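Appendix B, example 12.
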Amino acid sequence: MINKERILATFMELVTTDSATKQEGKIAALLQQKLEAMGFTVEFDDAGKKIGGEVGNLIAKLPGNAGKKPLLLCSHMDRVTPGFGIKPVIRDGVIYSDGSTILASDDCTGLSAILEGIQTAIEQNLPRPDIEVVFTIAEEGGLNGSKNLDYSRLKATEAYVIDSSTPVGSLITKAPAQTKFTYRIVGKAAHGGVAPEKGINALYVAAAAISKMKLGRIDHETTANIGLASGGTATNAVLETFEMKGDARSLVVEKMNAQVEHMNQVMEETCAQFGARLEKDVQFSYGSVNLQPGNEALERASAAVRRIGMEPTYAATGGGADANLFNTKGIAATDLGCGYNNPHGLDEYQPISELEKIGDLVVALIEEYASLG
């Protein structure tokens, strides 16, 4: 259904346009130009100002001529590093970088598919619902674009985030909620060789706490991880402060909250035991995705997959995406598989056949929403 040469050219143009978290200005300008050429009205919210970025989330709207429900499509404009100066190469029907950078199929594949799917629907005079497009900033490293998105500008109650490395045709129905935490243990400094007994070693306190703490895979729905740790000033000083950062996640929010409470309690009790002080910062990041069979947004996505001759599959993921924030804000959203592989790595690659399929799927979503009476 789509123009295969054009979607490939669009992908190549996007990945070679430099972008990074909070540095999405160039790619945002390019996307704005392409959307406005299709007749969209385009605006930016103030999310960029809130997080110190170059530009806000791009919000675009195109009036339709059919269907009663608006269709919301979303991908993100940033990418992980190294993502400047990408030189894509094609071998045997697969797109790679030259090995010195990532490819940025995460999420240029989603951006390309949305642009091509809409352009195809316009050119073929297909019936179209009202279409809303959100291209977010700062998705990598915390979903900070969608956290600060101006949701009051949107009318849609159902959304499709095109940003999963699973094969095209897969629908992410479950993704965990997340809470981030920082624990800072303040002990007491002393000379490590002259009078270590006069100090309180914050690292020792941290080790004692961690030994009592449930971490890793808590159950089939819940995880907890400490991923960053730092402290100390000199080898001959009793370590006075030690900081740990991590997150807890679960498909069930109550389980996540219980895990966080467990960790807080262990930290507080252990610090009290050793006479150390605990400074903690615990922040809820986003809610879960939990779309059950019969959910209208999920059923429409399934129907769209069947329109392109495939059978939908359903998957859970342990990571977060913009779909988490949409669901947290009351917009039923599922993440759609794009078929790219090894995201965030120098060996990242995108099969052209999968790029074409996800473009077709966007057309099918447009047709599905246009058919709603």
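The radius of gyration is 23 Å. Residues 345 and 371 are 40 Å apart (CA to CA).
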